[in-house]
Amino acid sequence: MGSSGTERADRQARPLDGFTVAVTADRRAEDLLALLRRRGARVLHGPAMRTVPLEDDAELRTVTEDLIARPPQIAIGTTAVGLRGWFAAAEGWGLGTGLAEALRGARLLARGPKVKGALRAAGLTEEWSPASESMAEVLDHLRTFDLRGARVAVQVHGDPLHEFRTALTGAGADVLAVPVYRWLPPEDPAPLDRLVDAVLAGTVDALPFTSAPAALALLAHAEARGVRDQLLVVLRDSVLVACVGPVTAAPLQALDIPTVTPGRFRLAPLVDLLCHELPARSPQLSVGGHLLALRGDLALVDGEHRPLPPASAALLRRLTDHPGRVVPRTELLRALPGPTGAPHAVDSAISRLRTALGAPGLVQTVVKRGYRLALEP
Predict the structure, then answer these.
(1) pLDDT tens track for 282-341
(2) Which of 18, 39, 170, 260 is the one with CA 20 to 30 A from 139?
(3) pTM score above 0.85
């Protein structure tokens, strides 16, 4: 008995119990999935892309050889993981010393502190780094230079930085893009299809992104399926979109998708942010003498977990969206997932909801009008 009580307390302590989180990451996906599951989330994984291994990337090797043959006057590092991978791949090709020497003679700009750390680990020292970690600030700084005829190497990281590179070219620079990571569509698109379908169906509570390319790849996949506009509506209105940092958030914010970002740009703070934001979106209500909260497909009644079938969760979500207000049967009918049929489907679903909650008095019938939560002042 004591063991069972302990297990129940552990389950109730997990902040993401009941929530469904969709993950599109390819690299380091297992770390993120494990962190989310440990906190109780149901995880839907559909990689939006796959990474070309650096050591197998002939294009990166060609660019590296070109950079060594004609060293740049200015070099810009944008991601720490990209730089570390590039240096490791160059060592494997026998080009490590040549790459370090070519960069040592350049004016090195680092987009952020992690990039500075990667440069220093390679025996290099940056000349300047923006406080904001913004490429816009990097560009403003570069505009103070005379770039006419200067060879500028820019490490790109999936986002090709077209506008940034175009601005440098317009200022007279000879720009060399270093494609440290290249991504291709997933070999099996079925998991990503299922993820997109779940988001569109309203069964996903949060989408955390760990890279801008993953976000762009998701939108490109939706566009290829003809559902991009529908996906944008859901991401703007219904799903919590969390990004590991401002670089990841930028292309989503450009599409008017609200995003949240942790104070520290790491996986663990990103998951901690979800643990705070998702429950905060499900306030606890005093209803019929009980404390009620809805978390995804899980109702908390006086702190006790009450799993809900999809139809029951959909109806309770609509009722909690309008606490205390009478919600007409026609509106509740539209909220039911899948083919709903006649209006009496709402009455049957409400009956099942009351049973699932274990407290029938939480949902009141208002004759000839609809249903409401028995909200207390």
Answers:
(1) 878 899 889 998 888 889 898 888 998 888 888 998 998 888 899 998 888 888 877 666
(2) 260
(3) no
- Closest Cα partner for 127 from 108, 144, 142, 113? 108
Q: Are the CB atoms for 197 and 233 separated by under 8 Å?
A: no
Burial track 295-314 (b if 16+ CB lie within 10 A, e otherwise) = bbbbbbbeeebbebeebbbb
3-state secondary structure of 251: helix
Give the number of other CB atoms < 10 A from CB of residue 134: 15
Q: Which amino acid is at 231?
A: L
What is the rounded CA–CA span in Å between residue 3 and residue 5? 5
- Cβ of 120: how many Cβ atoms within 10 Å? 12
**Tokens representing residue 249 in the block:** 């958030």
91 exposed, middle or buried (CB, 10 Å; 0-12, 13-18, 19+)?
Answer: middle
What is the phi/psi pair of residue 25, to 5°? -65, 150
Describe the chain by its helix, strand, coil percentages, rounded to 5: 45, 20, 35
Q: Which domains does the chain have, with CATH numbers?
A: 2-50+186-280 (3.40.50.10090), 54-181 (3.40.50.10090), 285-373 (1.10.10.10)
Q: Which residue has the tokens 């069964």?
A: 203
Identity of residue 174: D
DSSP E strand stretches across the chain:
20-23, 42-45, 50-51, 74-77, 107-110, 151-156, 174-179, 183-184, 206-209, 240-243, 285-287, 290-295, 298-301, 304-307, 327-328, 363-366, 370-373
44-98: pLDDT as tens digits:
999 999 877 777 788 899 999 999 999 999 999 998 888 999 999 999 999 999 9
Q: What is the DSSP string of 57-113?
A: -HHHHHHHHHHHHS--SEEEE--HHHHHHHHHHHHHTT-HHHHHHHHHTSEEEESSH
Cα end-to-end distance, the chain, whole Å: 37
Name residue 293's beta-bridge partners. 300
CA dist 152 to 27, 86, 125, 299, Å?
28, 17, 17, 56
What are the distances in angstroms from CA 370 to CA 51, 119, 292, 339, 346? 52, 64, 20, 20, 9
Q: Which amino acid is at 349?
A: A
Nearest to 113, CA basis, from 131, 98, 96: 131
